[in-house]
Amino acid sequence: MEIHSRQIIGTTDGPHLLITGGVHGDEFEPMAAIRRLMREVDPVQLRGRLTLVPVVNEAAFLRGARTAEDERDLARTCPGRPDGSVTEQTAHAISQLIRTADYFIDLHTGGTTMSVLPLTGYKLVPDEAVRETQRRMAHAFNLPLVWGTDYRLEGRTLSVARDAGVPAIYAEYLGRGLCDPAGIDAYVEGCLNVMAELDMLDRERPASRVERTVDDFRESAGHMQIRNPSPITGFFEPSVQLGGDVKAGEPLGTVTDILGDNVIPALSQESGTVIVLRTFSRVHAGDTLAVVLEDV
Length: 296
Ligand SMILES: [Zn+2]
Fold this sequence. Notes:
Layout: E1 6-9, E2 12-20, H1 28-40, E3 47-53, H2 58-63, H3 86-99, E4 103-107, E5 114-123, H4 128-141, E6 145-149, H5 157-164, E7 168-175, H6 181-197, E8 212-215, E9 234-238, E10 245-246, E11 251-256, E12 263-267, E13 272-278, E14 282-283, E15 290-293
Parallel strand pairs: 2-3, 2-4, 4-7, 5-6, 6-8
Antiparallel strand pairs: 1-3, 5-7, 5-13, 9-11, 9-14, 10-13, 11-12, 13-15
Helix pairs in contact: 1-6, 3-5, 4-6
Bound molecules: zinc ion.
Zinc ion (ZN) is lined by residues 23-24, 27, 108.
């Protein structure tokens, strides 16, 4: 399995930073942002080495879907196997690349079906030096929310980085199957800000746009796909907005059957801020409708 990448090698020594997009094939701002970094990072100004992967999961991208044809989530399959299914092979290849890096940024969005409040996340790993570096990278990336979550979650690119001791962050920026120019800008800026923070570039640091920092050490914190599952397969109509507040027991919206005879309210399991909201109306029973960020 070959993953297409480009390297920019600086004229001065420094660390090796890996930036990836398209772990999920329907997340487009990361792909565009990484291609812009290929054009805009000047090797003369760069200290160290940059490896840029716009589309990790090419099989999924070509399907226009989150996953490749085996329908395995690449972000649950790492570190994968060299002789497995297409997603297992991709997981193996990207895991090997992650282990060669000194620092790692993995860019995502909500894909075709969800929208995510712009945020930067990292694992609250026990190693304090790695955790502090990740916290610095996440703040430097400069999106409104910085979210530290359970380090024990497996199968992610960040799980591979954790096991290899590579400081790593991920980012989310809306979704809905769009490619928002503001999201591309925010991702290019975020990566350049992190490079400046790691002393790979000289760059004036912008004023902080971080509005909220949440550290959630609870087990499975950060696992978005298990929150607020749809009660039935049907048509979801939200009654909350992304970034809005909701209380536990209040409706997130309704899920309706084909003729509308059965309209089931979907009640929030938590009190807090809606940071992920389903935007694709068809939903399968058990799929996430929303993620609510609790005050912890
Ligand atoms: Zn993703």
